[in-house]
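Hi Y.,

Following your request, here is the sequence exactly as I used it, all 315 residues.
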Amino acid sequence: MTFPTYAPFTHLYFPIIRKWGFLLGIFLYCLPLQSQLTNQQQAKVDSLKEVIKVTEEDTVKVNAWFALDDIIYRLHPDTSLSINQRIQLTCVNRLSNSEVELPEAEQRFYQKSLGIAYYNIGWFYRSNNSHEQALKSFTESLTLFQQLGYLKGISRSLNGLTMLHLSKGNYNEALEFAIKHLNVVTKAGSKSSLSRVYSTMGTIYRELGDHINALQYSSKSLQLNEETENLSGIFNDLTNIGHIYSSQKDSVNAEKYYTKSYQVAQNLNDPNSLSVALHNMAGFFNERGDQDKALTYYNKSLRIAEETDDKYGMT
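Below is the corresponding structure, written out as tokens. Let me know if you'd prefer a different format.
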């Protein structure tokens, strides 16, 4: 029997920190949401639903669910949760059925799929501030992937646990998982994966008040993102370095890096990043007592936030 290749992880997030105003936490940096599916996406959804309806093969059904989830999870997170819970139930039932001995390939398929489902469920709960449920799901996914020796899954699960503790303000726990994540990514990760871990560690060290390590890891991330010409990553790193210098009351370097991040944001096709950059500039000048400049930048940020319905940017 030939088994379909299980779907890739559906959800992947990395942090960007907004310092000024009332938001100091994780900004989920992702593509702007569409109000509805495109015609092409809807045709794919209809096709996948038909596959799920008629197939008797659970492996085919699981892959169809993953493919469906990949299309709709940003638009319909509640439906995404339901899909991943169906995958979870299907995999658990197949793995726990003592009456049928699964071939090794099929058993591994269900174990990996179950780990991915737990991971996706964890991100749903994380996004909805259900921290205990997110912790349980991420831990379940990590355990499964460790049993399989599946480095990509281990990396994703450790990232989920890192970001969960970071969002809760558990910085020591976040650092513990981030270091474990770094060890895995160093062995098998890409430059982009490594830069995200460095960036996260820079943020954690900054929150812990360790500005030396914060600057070191944020600078490492910036170097990697510059090598790969990843403008979104460069913007993120410049912003975080600006926050580090601001925390040290180094206004010269803080302004330098906030200005650089603003310049990069102007070249990104992402109004949220531009709003963040303007908000940071407003906060910087407000802290320096230059109310005229602060108000100018704040009003620009507010206009963008209103246009994109960014509730955080309007605070």
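DSSP finds 13 helices and no strands in the chain.

Thanks again,
Q.
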